[in-house]
User: Fold this.
Amino acid sequence: MEDMLFYDRIQFGFTITFHYLFPQLTMGLSLMIVYFKWKFLRTGVQRFNEAAIFWMKIFALNFVMGVVTGIPMEFQFGTNWAKFSELSGSVIGQTLAMEGMFSFFLESSFLGLFLFGEKLLGQKLHFLTGFLVFLGSWASGVFIIATHSWMQNPVGYEILENGKFVLTNFSDLFSNPWLWPAFLHNQAASLVTSSFVVSAVGAFYLLNKKHTEFGRIFVKTGVVFGLVSTIFVAFPSGDMFAKNVVKYQPVTFAAMEGVFETQKGGAEIVLIGQPNMVEKKLDNKIAVPDVLSFLTYQRWNATVEGLNEFDEELYPTNIPGLYYAYHIMVGLGTIFIGLMLCASVQLFRKKLFMTKWILWALVFMIPFPYIANTAGWYTAELGRQPWLIYNLLRTSQGASPTVSSGNTLFTLLGFVGLYLLLGMLFLMLVWKIINQGPKPLKQ
Amino acid sequence: MTMELLWYVVLLFMLSVYLVMEGYDFGAGIVHLFFAKDESDKKIITKAIGPFWDANEVWLIASGGVLFFAFPTLYASSFSGFYLPLIMILWLLIFRAIGLELRGLVHNKIWEIIWDKAFGLSSLLLALFFGVALGNIVRGVNLGMVENGVSRHEGHYFFLPLWNSTFSPHAEHLGVIDWFTAILGLLAVVALTIHGANWIVYKTNSSMNDRLRKVAFVLNFVLMALVLISLLVWHVILENPFQNFINVPWLWIFPLTTFIGLFGLFGVRVYERDGLGFLFSTLFLLGGFATTAASMFPKLLPSTNNVNPSLTLYNVAADDYGLSIGLQWFSIALVLVIVYFVIQHRVFKGKMDDVSYGDH
Assistant:
């Protein structure tokens, strides 16, 4: 039984981690493509149109990866989490079905038109199809995060005698206080990924002295989008999100921040340190006094509740994992702001394209927004454990009763092998597209 | 009561659209595997389905979503019970999609052969698996995994291995593949191959169109034979497969549609209009699917034991409030989906030979 739950969790965790590598780029990138296309329509400069078409190729590849790895996510609710689906399907099934009906049809219909219809449609309609693809991908974000929010902070439901959750108020699903801060935070984070990817490809072209006119556009656009999104992801959206965690899941907040003992008269913020679960303290920590109190309650001397205030039954299952995931996200987020600030200063001084160290830094940064996004989602999901539906249904009560651990191990290995292949193909093809570059302009 | 019935119709509608739309995708894949002789044949096939397949696949995702929210108990029961075949369907869908999308990105003989086969074989296996799946739903499963009159699980849960050593639909321990479900799998492969060939004829001016008309014509005899066989064995599987039709005579419209489609397909070689063959294979698929559903009504997943009752649309549905509010957003969404569909098919109307696809 324990075994079974372990493999079910690993399989879902693995497949969703891999899946989300793609949507996090496509959501942000779709907005940047719309920007390029809009810039072309406004200025008539052909470069911007070629830029939009170039990024649409990368978008299309990521989109296909997102679709084929996304279908297993929907199926796994039924295959591996049957009990959870049976009990909560009439609530979270709403938002998941809405995602299919409202976003996937929109995205998939108009992506085909955007990719193959430029000549048939004319420029204005072509821009519109790009905009609709963007709209579909962001709407998808709303529905998925509405589902996530209901699991984190269930609203508008009633529990029947047989344990089933039924919806009592549909609009509550979308006015859930958890939803909009989480959505803004997630979309900003997705823009962080796409800005870094766009600017890294631009920096690569500049360093390589190939496709330099596109290199300049990509670096400039990436840095401007990057500066705005790296700041926005921390403040106000990240700040709003963290305050929700304090309010609705205080024990999770204590574990995230590594606060074992309640800190009266000003809580320190931990920059680095290792949770020691035996002695219930942080080893080797570096901390700044009073800052956590200020960030959380806007008072330097506010009391921050520690894990000791709560029943151990309610502790997140994996406190060190949660703590590290959160600190990796915050640490990387801070580095991102720093780099984008430096790049923006150089851009303002019109020296960015010659500042080699920043261009190199942008190229090297490519994996890190992905790591930060993943760590952020791990923070949210590990923070919810041991619950599937916070405070109402435990993860151990949600798994499929008849699927054995051997079967799940078999399919897990299959997914690992298949996704390894997918990942290699993806990298190879994305490299090919980048290396080939946008269509050269006629002089 | 009426809400469940309404959502049952919605679900059948969505699955029917999926069957017709992704049906021609799978069929085109099978044609690609067996009947595409050279590079230009292959190109023409990918052009015929290129801008559509992704939107077609969304009907599966959306049907899954509707099943999840309108009939959560059925979703939980069937998805966990058919665990292995479903996960394999997912893997095949992945292979099929990457075969189709990645092939054109590198120009190398071996690379192209690998992804051609991945696309073709996974299309073939998917058609087979979906037919087998329908067979399983008709035959029913051992709900509650009853042994010696005792349920080993809650009455709506079960688990099926891929096959058992007897391959019999009457065995005590059932498997996903037995001779009955295999017949339906084969039927699906043949029907979708014809359907796919008709789509290619409809959407292109390719040089292989004449060949494909002939293929569809010959295969239609095989299809006819398989339909007759499956009608005969239907009695072996279900006690009174035609009871619903006797009670509610207007249901005969579905078998009638099936046979109009089937007989219409014999004319595929002589039709002046290229779309007619596709129309008849569509009628055949829709009629066949609706006939199966009508024959089982109100059952959704029959029980093969006497301990636990079959799953019907009345004992697996969500609550009324959720279903009625769902109907409101669903109506809006459906109108939008139809608008997208019309736009998409108007832009890419007629023959697709000149649309560049695969070299993006």
